[in-house]
Amino acid sequence: MSLKSVRQLTAAALLALCVFGASACVPLKSHQGYVIDADLVNSVQAGTDNRQSVLATLGKPSFTSEFNQGDWYYVSRETRNFAYNNPKVREQTTLRISFDEKGNVTAVRKSGVEQVASISPSGKTTPTLGKKRSFFDELFGNIGTVGAVGGGQGGQSNTGGGRDTP
């Protein structure tokens, strides 16, 4: 093999490695939830539409409220992440449709990504109140407590707190 062909082969391998390596850094985009069609959303009007017409126009909601006469929510979210990182919300649209007691639309509200809550957990364990127990306390802690006084034997009955009679 000549020196020129070795250089060409090496250059081709380096180019392929660069292309493959760069493709790993491409952001992954995904869509979650309702696919919003602006024309359909704008066609829903307060005072003229009802539950049946909204269902026919927009389809089944993402979720419904248990309170406030069962408001309907349509949620659309666009996320992006690089490689193994957690996805970051880039766009979110929440459409809230409120109904009165008769099922007529009273309000149509839109909100965006400002409603997304960012939660950062504190540490790897949940803080609890009380005594800190070691591994061996947990392992051997119940030895001798089964059948002991206060363990459900005698004293109070389980039927109302009265005294047991012999």
Structure explained in plain terms:
- There is one protein chain.
- By secondary structure, the chain is α+β, with helices and mostly antiparallel strands.
- 25% of the residues lie in helices and 22% in strands.
- It is built from 4 helices and 5 strands; from the N terminus they run αβααββββα.
- It has helices at residues 3-23, 38-43, 51-58, 135-140; strands spanning 28-33, 63-64, 72-81, 88-99, 105-111.
- Strands 1, 2, 3, 4 and 5 form a 5-stranded antiparallel beta sheet that branches.
- Strand 2 and strand 3 (72-81) form a beta hairpin.
- Mean pLDDT is 78; it is low at 152-158.
What are the SSEs and their pairings?
Layout: H1 3-23, E1 28-33, H2 38-43, H3 51-58, E2 63-64, E3 72-81, E4 88-99, E5 105-111, H4 135-140
Antiparallel strand pairs: 1-3, 2-3, 3-4, 4-5
Helix fraction?
Answer: 10-25%
Helix/strand/pairing category: alpha+beta
Instruction: Give me the number of helical elements.
Output: 4
Strand content: 15-25%
Rg over alpha carbons: 31 Å
Which H/E pattern describes the elements? HEHHEEEEH
Distance between the termini: 105 Å
Instruction: Tell me the overall shape.
Output: flat
Number of strands: 5
If you average the pLDDT, what whole number results? 78
Please outline the major beta sheet. 5 strands, antiparallel
User: Which regions are unreliable across 5 or more consecutive residues at pLDDT < 50?
Assistant: 152-158
